[in-house]
Amino acid sequence: MFGRSYFCLLAIPSLVLAQQIDSDVPLVHGRANELVTRLPDIVRPTSPTTPEPPPIVPRSPVRTPRAGFPDFARAAGMIFSGTVKRMERRPATRAQAVETVAITFHVDNAIRGVTPGEDLTISQWIGLWSSGQRYRVGEQVLLFLYPPSKLGLTSCVAGTMGRFSVDARGRILLSAEHLSAFRQDPVLGGKSRVRFRDFTRAVLQARGEE
User: The pTM is what?
Assistant: First the structure.
């Protein structure tokens, strides 16, 4: 009797311990699931991605400062209005190392460096012609030309700025580019059409010759 009672007493703690262990297993398993569920948010490595390039910031346009009308007028060796008579393409030679275009004008009105009524032929580098600085036979223009170089070549002062169209009444037409550049000039400022006489006065004043 005593032996069976002792065996029962030993069995009771074992059962209690087994139940406690069985009741703890789901708890541990549940915490493990919780950790696994939280793992991606904490330590799971992310897939490699290509870093985005830095944004491209557009640069502000660079504007070239424009000289005033006095500097512009003083840079010219020849200033006149005339009519285009003919053009001739001339190949490079031993004496003239570059290909040129010879342009002949009938000088209608002269301001500097030419004679009214003469036929004036200038030589222009072919590259300027190819880039768009061209003329048409019969076209009336007013030109500011640089003094001829050692090769005898010339071109309009400041590119297109040195060229003005002339209407049928002989008035000088100022483009939007001219109006912007010469808006401070006391004679030309704000005018899109100027009589040749007034234009001549503006040139002489700018050059300090009046």
Answer: 0.67
